[in-house]
Batch of 2 targets.
Target 1
Amino acid sequence: MQDSGIQVLFQGNNFLRTLQGLGVTIGISILSVIISLILGTLFGIIMTSRSKAVRFLSRAYLEFIRVMPQLVLLFLVYFGLARNFDINISGELSAIIVFSLWGTAEMGDLVRGAITSLPKHQFESGQALGLSQRQLYLYIIIPQVLRRLLPQAINLITRMIKTTSLIVLIGVIEVVKVGQQIIDSNRLSIPSAAFWIYGCILLLYFAVCFPISKLSSYLETIWKE
């Protein structure tokens, strides 16, 4: 009698390996998100500069990152830098660099949109009170921007987590790669293993992303009150 595909998950240490792969995915995602939130906020403020040159350069960076597929950027950083500049860079670091560049650009545009949507009198009132530019943004602008920014930022975070599945193509042993290894090792004995393994991976991604989405709804409710 042929083994059921779901049994593959619990043979040996397969499920533990899958969770370890998920840990790699989460680790890369967390670092990329933190870097993107910090640099993206600064980049968004820079994008509102009165200097035409600064706005042009920031817009050029945004459009380049937005148009370029993340997979191409991963290959460019991981394979291109290694071969052309003799730089030894790991797949994990390549992923963090690429997702941080992407997240910074997208987050910056969200911050720019949130800042420019604020009424002008918010800026004028702060300046009238004698606040410095730093104090103006720290105490008046950024707290208001956070409320407008939250839903889009949460959406970006979940997109970044899901897009980390691309790093399997540069050899990073994350959750999808582990799943492929388990499937390949059981391809002949248990042909239906792929359905159960990828189904498990789907549920793991859902388990990570769903609470983040619910947190967004919860925070919006609190702020409205």
Note: The two ends are 60 Å apart (CA to CA).
Target 2
Amino acid sequence: MIQIACKKVRYYLVPNTESSANELILLPVLRAQKAASGGLIVTQKYLNGAAEYAKSWPGPVTSLFEVSPLPSTDLDHVEVADDIGGHVIEIRPNDLKVLARRLQSASVVVGFLSPFEVGTTEICNRIGVPVVHVAEYTLRTEWQIIDSSGANPIVKLRRKLWAWKAERLRQYLIGISAGLQCNGVPTYRAYREICPDAFLFFDNRVKNSDIITSEKLARKTLEVQVGRPLRLVFGGRFVPMKGVLQLPRVARHLSQAGVPFELAIYGAGPEESKLRSAISRYGLEDQISIFPPVDFDQGWVPFLKQSADLFVCCHMQGDPSSTYSETMACGVPIAGYDNEAFKGIVEISGAGFLAPMGDSKKLASVIADLHRNRDRLVRAAQIGVSFSKQHCFESTFSRRVDHFKNLSRHPRKNDFV
């Protein structure tokens, strides 16, 4: 965990009058952990996004975090102070009346489309503050995540019933919200009948300046076409929903088919021991290597641009992973299971290679075909880069802020002070 020198986190119980009614208030679904120093532990990915909002929003930007005693499973934890990256971090009041007073300074509130935000959204309606919710998971995706959890059938059934009830509340929330932003195709398609002006975006933390250049892509193209062993890669949390235990199965089928490859797996998580055991059981130690997480900007992005030919994505559900657009921005095509999020981005971008969900043998066959036809890999890389340029980090967040402005209490930019 990275530590940043910090001051004590502020506990606001009343609105800051100096920023009256022009504040962008974010209610992240991510919970913070309280550090011994008095600061909060959150993720660098979240901080980068909030700071990017602050560049385009003509007023204060504040994140109100709920606090959890347990850390999240994310891999980029940092300890922060109350004011960092151009926006302010605060602890979210638990009392709804206190929260209502705090939200009175907002021009717009951005929340996560969750049944837990029903009370907050109703309060905002009463005090005249518009709320824009961000949607990520469809009911289908939530059920898939439950199926991948390994819980017993009774527990799974109870969780699915809860998710079904939560979906009814999400639809109610959309009806009382000022607007909706959909991260990825699945939620956009699921909710656009309820909210015809829903905003579609693809989460992506690769900056425009970090997208692979045409010169480097051309050099990479020559390397791919030489015909050397495919440099396969996976990066992410080692948790069931990411399908990390599918990777050794895919690799075993590739090995049995005589496809030359090397697979680099980056990440950490509770499935690591099982992953290592599977690699050993299949005798793949010479072809698969596991590495700890690396810094996104200084390690992961350069690695993808220089040393990866194909990303193998075994996600067992349709979460709108930023991995898709970020990997394509580095000139690395993706072959993966046809979950609804990846399938949607393939349909829109024209890049990527699909295999039936959970069919490791078929996914290996798709990769084997790409090994024999390297031109398809090259073309997919080129298309993916073009798509990512349209959806780079800065452009995506700038468009999202424009959407917030249009739905705020001050819909015209020159109304802000």
Note: The chain has a mean pLDDT of 90.
